[in-house]
Design a protein that fits this description.
This protein is an alpha/beta fold and 224 residues long. 41% of the residues lie in helices and 21% in strands. It has a domain at 23-116 and 129-150 and 183-195: ABC-type transport auxiliary lipoprotein component (Rossmann fold, 3-Layer(aba) Sandwich), CATH 3.40.50.10610.
Protein backbone atom coordinates (compact mmCIF):
# COMPACT_ATOMS: atom_id res chain seq x y z
CA UNK A 1 0.00 0.00 0.00
CA UNK A 2 2.86 2.38 0.86
CA UNK A 3 4.50 1.60 -2.47
CA UNK A 4 1.25 2.42 -4.30
CA UNK A 5 0.96 5.76 -2.49
CA UNK A 6 4.53 6.67 -3.38
CA UNK A 7 3.89 5.74 -7.01
CA UNK A 8 0.77 7.95 -7.15
CA UNK A 9 2.65 10.90 -5.61
CA UNK A 10 5.54 10.46 -8.06
CA UNK A 11 3.13 10.24 -11.00
CA UNK A 12 1.37 13.41 -9.85
CA UNK A 13 4.66 15.30 -9.65
CA UNK A 14 5.66 14.13 -13.14
CA UNK A 15 2.29 15.19 -14.60
CA UNK A 16 2.55 18.61 -12.95
CA UNK A 17 6.03 19.12 -14.33
CA UNK A 18 4.99 18.06 -17.82
CA UNK A 19 2.10 20.51 -17.76
CA UNK A 20 4.29 23.47 -16.82
CA UNK A 21 4.11 26.11 -19.54
CA UNK A 22 7.49 26.93 -21.08
CA UNK A 23 7.95 30.16 -23.00
CA UNK A 24 8.76 29.83 -26.70
CA UNK A 25 11.66 32.17 -27.51
CA UNK A 26 12.10 31.16 -31.15
CA UNK A 27 10.41 34.28 -32.57
CA UNK A 28 12.11 36.52 -30.04
CA UNK A 29 15.57 35.27 -30.94
CA UNK A 30 14.82 35.36 -34.67
CA UNK A 31 13.81 39.04 -34.41
CA UNK A 32 17.38 39.89 -33.30
CA UNK A 33 16.25 42.89 -31.26
CA UNK A 34 18.60 45.70 -30.32
CA UNK A 35 16.15 48.36 -29.12
CA UNK A 36 12.78 48.27 -27.35
CA UNK A 37 10.29 51.14 -27.33
CA UNK A 38 8.30 51.45 -24.08
CA UNK A 39 5.01 53.21 -24.81
CA UNK A 40 2.55 54.77 -22.31
CA UNK A 41 0.74 52.12 -20.30
CA UNK A 42 -2.97 51.38 -20.41
CA UNK A 43 -4.53 51.91 -16.99
CA UNK A 44 -7.37 49.57 -16.01
CA UNK A 45 -7.11 50.50 -12.33
CA UNK A 46 -9.00 53.22 -10.47
CA UNK A 47 -5.81 55.14 -9.62
CA UNK A 48 -5.25 57.86 -12.24
CA UNK A 49 -1.64 58.39 -11.09
CA UNK A 50 -0.64 54.75 -11.63
CA UNK A 51 0.72 55.10 -15.21
CA UNK A 52 3.14 57.92 -14.34
CA UNK A 53 4.46 56.12 -11.28
CA UNK A 54 4.80 52.83 -13.12
CA UNK A 55 6.70 54.33 -16.07
CA UNK A 56 9.39 55.48 -13.64
CA UNK A 57 10.12 51.81 -12.79
CA UNK A 58 10.15 50.04 -16.15
CA UNK A 59 13.14 51.36 -18.15
CA UNK A 60 15.94 50.04 -15.93
CA UNK A 61 14.97 46.32 -15.86
CA UNK A 62 14.61 46.28 -19.66
CA UNK A 63 17.90 48.12 -20.20
CA UNK A 64 19.66 45.81 -17.75
CA UNK A 65 18.73 42.90 -20.00
CA UNK A 66 20.91 44.45 -22.71
CA UNK A 67 18.56 46.47 -24.91
CA UNK A 68 18.53 50.15 -25.83
CA UNK A 69 15.49 51.79 -24.24
CA UNK A 70 14.13 55.09 -25.51
CA UNK A 71 13.52 57.73 -22.78
CA UNK A 72 9.90 57.21 -21.75
CA UNK A 73 9.11 60.90 -21.22
CA UNK A 74 10.49 61.79 -24.66
CA UNK A 75 8.48 58.94 -26.19
CA UNK A 76 5.31 60.24 -24.58
CA UNK A 77 5.83 63.78 -25.93
CA UNK A 78 6.60 62.58 -29.45
CA UNK A 79 3.48 60.40 -29.49
CA UNK A 80 1.35 63.29 -28.24
CA UNK A 81 2.70 65.49 -31.06
CA UNK A 82 1.73 62.74 -33.49
CA UNK A 83 -1.86 62.69 -32.20
CA UNK A 84 -1.46 59.69 -29.91
CA UNK A 85 -2.08 61.35 -26.57
CA UNK A 86 -4.18 58.50 -25.15
CA UNK A 87 -2.58 55.21 -24.12
CA UNK A 88 -5.45 53.18 -25.57
CA UNK A 89 -4.88 54.86 -28.94
CA UNK A 90 -1.18 54.07 -28.72
CA UNK A 91 -1.85 50.40 -27.97
CA UNK A 92 -4.31 50.13 -30.86
CA UNK A 93 -1.96 51.78 -33.36
CA UNK A 94 0.08 49.53 -35.69
CA UNK A 95 3.29 48.43 -34.00
CA UNK A 96 5.23 49.14 -37.19
CA UNK A 97 4.07 52.78 -37.13
CA UNK A 98 5.26 53.23 -33.56
CA UNK A 99 8.63 51.68 -34.35
CA UNK A 100 9.07 53.80 -37.48
CA UNK A 101 8.65 56.98 -35.44
CA UNK A 102 11.69 56.12 -33.31
CA UNK A 103 13.62 53.58 -35.35
CA UNK A 104 12.89 50.89 -32.75
CA UNK A 105 12.97 47.12 -33.28
CA UNK A 106 10.08 46.25 -30.96
CA UNK A 107 7.46 47.76 -28.66
CA UNK A 108 6.80 46.92 -25.02
CA UNK A 109 3.14 47.32 -24.08
CA UNK A 110 2.10 47.24 -20.43
CA UNK A 111 -1.42 47.13 -19.01
CA UNK A 112 -2.07 47.96 -15.36
CA UNK A 113 -4.93 45.68 -14.32
CA UNK A 114 -4.84 46.56 -10.61
CA UNK A 115 -3.10 49.24 -8.57
CA UNK A 116 -5.09 49.49 -5.37
CA UNK A 117 -5.14 49.17 -1.59
CA UNK A 118 -8.05 47.35 0.05
CA UNK A 119 -8.73 48.13 3.71
CA UNK A 120 -9.72 45.11 5.82
CA UNK A 121 -10.09 46.57 9.37
CA UNK A 122 -6.87 45.15 10.83
CA UNK A 123 -4.84 45.04 7.62
CA UNK A 124 -4.58 46.67 4.22
CA UNK A 125 -3.78 44.61 1.13
CA UNK A 126 -1.85 46.50 -1.55
CA UNK A 127 -2.02 44.89 -5.00
CA UNK A 128 -0.21 45.56 -8.27
CA UNK A 129 -1.33 43.49 -11.28
CA UNK A 130 0.52 43.96 -14.60
CA UNK A 131 0.42 42.46 -18.08
CA UNK A 132 3.52 42.82 -20.31
CA UNK A 133 3.71 42.25 -24.08
CA UNK A 134 6.56 42.76 -26.54
CA UNK A 135 5.67 42.91 -30.26
CA UNK A 136 7.91 42.84 -33.32
CA UNK A 137 8.22 46.22 -35.03
CA UNK A 138 8.23 44.65 -38.50
CA UNK A 139 5.59 41.93 -38.31
CA UNK A 140 3.54 42.98 -35.28
CA UNK A 141 3.85 39.44 -33.95
CA UNK A 142 3.89 38.89 -30.19
CA UNK A 143 7.45 37.93 -29.24
CA UNK A 144 7.03 37.67 -25.48
CA UNK A 145 4.38 38.24 -22.82
CA UNK A 146 4.07 37.87 -19.07
CA UNK A 147 1.63 38.53 -16.25
CA UNK A 148 2.70 39.46 -12.73
CA UNK A 149 0.67 40.08 -9.56
CA UNK A 150 2.31 41.38 -6.39
CA UNK A 151 0.50 41.69 -3.04
CA UNK A 152 1.68 43.31 0.19
CA UNK A 153 0.07 43.44 3.63
CA UNK A 154 1.85 45.23 6.50
CA UNK A 155 2.75 42.97 9.39
CA UNK A 156 3.08 44.11 13.00
CA UNK A 157 6.41 43.18 14.60
CA UNK A 158 5.36 44.38 18.01
CA UNK A 159 4.41 41.82 20.63
CA UNK A 160 2.77 43.73 23.44
CA UNK A 161 1.53 40.60 25.19
CA UNK A 162 -2.01 41.94 24.94
CA UNK A 163 -4.18 40.69 22.04
CA UNK A 164 -6.23 43.89 22.16
CA UNK A 165 -3.13 46.11 21.99
CA UNK A 166 -1.77 44.06 19.08
CA UNK A 167 -5.04 44.47 17.20
CA UNK A 168 -4.96 48.23 17.77
CA UNK A 169 -1.39 48.44 16.41
CA UNK A 170 -2.37 46.38 13.38
CA UNK A 171 -5.42 48.57 12.74
CA UNK A 172 -3.30 51.74 12.91
CA UNK A 173 -0.74 50.29 10.50
CA UNK A 174 -3.52 49.25 8.12
CA UNK A 175 -5.01 52.76 8.20
CA UNK A 176 -1.61 54.34 7.48
CA UNK A 177 -0.97 51.98 4.56
CA UNK A 178 -4.45 52.66 3.16
CA UNK A 179 -3.93 56.43 3.42
CA UNK A 180 -0.57 56.37 1.65
CA UNK A 181 0.13 53.01 -0.05
CA UNK A 182 3.60 52.57 -1.53
CA UNK A 183 3.12 50.86 -4.88
CA UNK A 184 6.61 51.40 -6.31
CA UNK A 185 8.37 48.53 -4.49
CA UNK A 186 5.67 46.14 -5.70
CA UNK A 187 5.98 47.43 -9.29
CA UNK A 188 9.77 47.06 -9.12
CA UNK A 189 9.44 43.50 -7.81
CA UNK A 190 6.96 42.66 -10.58
CA UNK A 191 9.29 44.07 -13.24
CA UNK A 192 12.29 42.21 -11.85
CA UNK A 193 10.39 38.92 -11.80
CA UNK A 194 8.94 39.50 -15.28
CA UNK A 195 12.22 40.30 -17.04
CA UNK A 196 14.72 38.10 -15.19
CA UNK A 197 16.17 35.41 -17.43
CA UNK A 198 16.32 32.45 -17.10
CA UNK A 199 12.83 32.51 -15.71
CA UNK A 200 9.89 34.48 -16.99
CA UNK A 201 12.00 37.10 -18.72
CA UNK A 202 13.57 38.01 -22.02
CA UNK A 203 16.91 36.64 -23.24
CA UNK A 204 19.90 38.98 -22.86
CA UNK A 205 20.27 41.53 -25.65
CA UNK A 206 23.38 42.76 -27.50
CA UNK A 207 24.28 45.28 -24.79
CA UNK A 208 24.03 42.89 -21.87
CA UNK A 209 26.98 42.84 -19.50
CA UNK A 210 28.83 39.54 -19.93
CA UNK A 211 28.79 37.29 -16.89
CA UNK A 212 32.30 37.06 -15.52
CA UNK A 213 33.71 33.54 -15.38
CA UNK A 214 36.44 32.52 -12.97
CA UNK A 215 39.91 32.16 -14.44
CA UNK A 216 40.70 28.47 -14.30
CA UNK A 217 43.99 28.73 -16.22
CA UNK A 218 46.69 27.22 -14.06
CA UNK A 219 49.42 29.53 -12.84
CA UNK A 220 52.53 28.56 -14.78
CA UNK A 221 54.73 31.33 -13.36
CA UNK A 222 57.84 29.65 -12.04
CA UNK A 223 58.46 30.02 -8.34
CA UNK A 224 61.62 31.71 -7.15
Amino acid sequence: MQVLKKFIILLSIMMTASCAVQKDYSKFRAANLRSILIVPVVNRSVDVTAPEYFLSTISIPVAEQGYYVFPVNLVKRVLEDDGLSDADLVHSAPTSKLCDLFGADAVLYVSIERWDAQYMIVTTQVTVDLIYTIKDGKTGDTLWEDHQTMVYSPQSNQNSGSPMATLIVMAVQAAITKADPNYLPLAQQANAKAFTYPGHGIPPGPYATPIATPNTTPNTTPTQ
